[in-house]
Amino acid sequence: MAEKIKKFFAKKKADAKFKLAGPGHKLNESSTTVLVGPSKKKPSYVPSKLEPSDAARQAAEAALVRVSNQRKDTAFNTSLAAIQAKVRRELEAEKKGTETHSEASYSQPSKPIETELELSSHLAVNGVYFKCPLISDEVLTKDEWKVKIKEFLFNTLEEERGMTACLIIYSCNYNRSKVIECVNVLCRYLDNIIANSEETKFHKIRCSNATFIDKVVPVLGATDLLYSAGFRQQKLEINGVEEEFWVWSIDNIDGMDTLQFLRDTLKSESRVELEIDRNIQVLSPAQAAKRIELPQDFYAISAEELKREKQQSQSGTFSVYERFSEVFDFVKENLEHEGLPFILTTATGHRFEENDKDSTLVDLRLVPATILMFQWDPSVEEDLKLAGNVAYLKPEVMILVQSM
């Protein structure tokens, strides 16, 4: 099931890229056919839609200046993707504030615009960002991804309603217990028809039914799944009174295998998963020591090399439920010499052993933030000392070094 979902998303991404490539042309068509004649009618001039206002331009310039001119008294620069996400959010917030202020000025005295407070300058990072390889290569906040995932899935309903409805149920509803209750009810509807396809009493779901109202209707994607299973909304006369029902017919689906597929997909609990963006930063030991206060919803891990006065340290963001092996691999893949053995210890000198790699960061009490000490394994340490000035981090990682 997971492989089928991956192929489905891969096709959607490929289709999106193909559309962005522009109109196609035949190989044997003449070059003159690509010329586009002048428009007979000029579009009406709409300043607010076709070009940014002075206020919007000033907001954009201010946001970019804030990011590009950060000094030691401001929060750290983050990775390029995180910076782009931060700028985009600032622009949208300022644009929204400007539009709200402009609309209000015609009807009532202007009021102060509420703005979100900046995070403390002592935070190691400004926020947690995520990736969703199934949908796009963007790096966004979790709230931004929630909106984007919902838009993507609902735009896909017409193409693949059944699988998409299952993904919506698990990806766009955030009350786990409500989702499980809804899935159990939906599976019961499907099981009844699969086991007794000729029994007409299982072909109807009364819209006024308490269970249907409480457990199915509030869950996004639930009625879309019923539709893909062959149910359609109809009015039926019961005891002389018309009532709304969802009525099933085998004519609405390709066959009974459709119901079994939907049931299996529901029970697989497949969802659109987010991957936390590591948000790699390279800091001096002094910077890392000063900036370990973090928001409660995430923590940062830094692999700090303290072998020389000017050596750098590195930080990254992890989920509290990730295993320590992820931190170990993160350090390894950013080292100039990946194949050499190394040791990670806590600030108190506790050395992490091989069996710690399967433990979560919560289990090892490395949350919400911690500093780990890096040193080469004694088996290679002497050889590296004899080699002289050996680099620790890869050149492409050192580009991210933070200014004091």
UniProtKB/TrEMBL annotation:
GO terms for cellular component: cytoplasm. SUPFAM superfamilies: PUG domain-like, Ubiquitin-like. Residues 177-259 form the PUB domain. Residues 92-102 have a biased composition (Basic and acidic residues). Residues 22-53, 92-111 are annotated as: Disordered. Residues 44-53 have a biased composition (Low complexity). Transmembrane segments: none annotated. It comes from the Eukaryota. This is PUB domain-containing protein. It comes from Rhamnusium bicolor.
